[in-house]
Amino acid sequence: MVTYTLKRVSIAHLPTPLEPLARLSQRLGGPELWVKRDDQTGLATGGNKTRKLEFLLADALANGADTLLTCGAAQSNHARQTAAAAAKLGLKAVLVLRGEAPPGVQGNLLLDLLLGAEIVWAGDRPLPDALESAAAACHRRGDTPYVVPYGGSNPVGASGYVAAMEELLAQCAQQELHFDHIVFASSSGGTQAGLAVGARALGYTGRVLGISVDMPGASLRASVAELATATAVRLGLDLTFAAADIDVNDDYVGGGYAAISELEREAIRTVAQTEGLLLDPVYTGRAFGGLLDLIRCGAFAPDERVLFWHTGGSAGLFGYAEAVLGSAWAR
Ligand SMILES: *Cc1c(COP(=O)(O)O)cnc(C)c1O
């Protein structure tokens, strides 16, 4: 166990289920699709950030923090999971969110408020600047803030996905399963960096393919490689990663972050209506839309086994209801 000695708090429901998508696989005529249910990590509607927060919060507590401070989009799943983790451990949470307060409170923003987080709107300030002044404000009032990085993506947070790869490979061993490909949504890179380290450290031989949600492939590959190397160092592993070691597809970025199009709508409808499984409009809808397109293009052999790693985010469905429905849907 590579991550066994790391400080960790227990806030996630683990292991998350590993389930076949039998009806969808049959309808597509292969490959054999499975899903790893990190939308079911259990913390206030779950998601991938909860795995990272198990390690980040242990670090925050070791540093004597009484306040978690982080940043993200107005509908940030990461901010919502950070707020929930803070509540569960009796810490305060300050969330610096991009832009201005929207007219309606929905989805993740609704949950942030219910979870008792303080929201600071960044307005036209860049998020790092707004985060820095929020940290200064915490210090001025005598609080001890711990800054959780954007997306929880530093070597501490990414360790959560090294542990997740250990968890998956244990499930595979138990069920005598092998996945030829693991496909998931990649953005701030902590998930992909952790999976890459876990794969290399544990000898996983399949492909680990991040579908970029917003970043150009070259910059995402470079930042994931750098983070993977730093994460390996933290774990005492003698592994280094170059950009060429990181597999990213950026064909589905479309109009950019949270620009919801028919790609996401079709994926959300298809998976909901064949499997009763909810994707989200920003991350998993885009990644699964990309996966469906790759399947149509013949990127996988029909007898290959492909794992979609569901990273959560379904609370965002409510925050983007109109865009998710689209004009084609009669109401
Ligand atoms: C944050 C997030 C991702 C991307 O994970 P990174 O580690 O930031 O690359 C994917 N899916 C969902 C639902 C997320 O909230």
Provide structural commentary:
The protein is α/β, with parallel strands linked by helices and 331 residues long. Helix content is 44%, strand content 15%. The protein has helices at 22-28, 49-62, 77-89, 107-114, 127-140, 155-175, 190-202, 217-234, 262-275, 284-296, 316-319, 321-325; strands at 18-20, 32-37, 67-72, 92-97, 118-121, 145-147, 181-186, 207-212, 247-249, 305-310. It has a six-stranded mixed sheet, with helices on both faces. The protein has a four-stranded parallel sheet with strand order 5-4-3-6, with helices on both faces. The protein starts with 17 loop residues before the first strand and ends in a 6-residue tail after the last helix. The model has no long low-confidence stretch (mean pLDDT 96). The chain binds pyridoxal-5'-phosphate (PLP). Pyridoxal-5'-phosphate (PLP) binds at residues 47-48, 77-78, 151, 153, 185-192, 280, 283-284, 311-313.
Summarize the structure.
The protein contains twelve helices and ten strands.
Q: What would the keywords be for this entry?
A:
about 325 residues, alpha/beta, six-stranded mixed beta sheet, four-stranded parallel beta sheet, 12 helices, globular, binds pyridoxal-5'-phosphate
Q: Beta-sheet strand percentage?
A: 5-15%
Distance between the terminal alpha carbons, to the nearest Å? 51 Å
Number of strands: 10
- Overall 3D form: globular
Mean pLDDT: 96
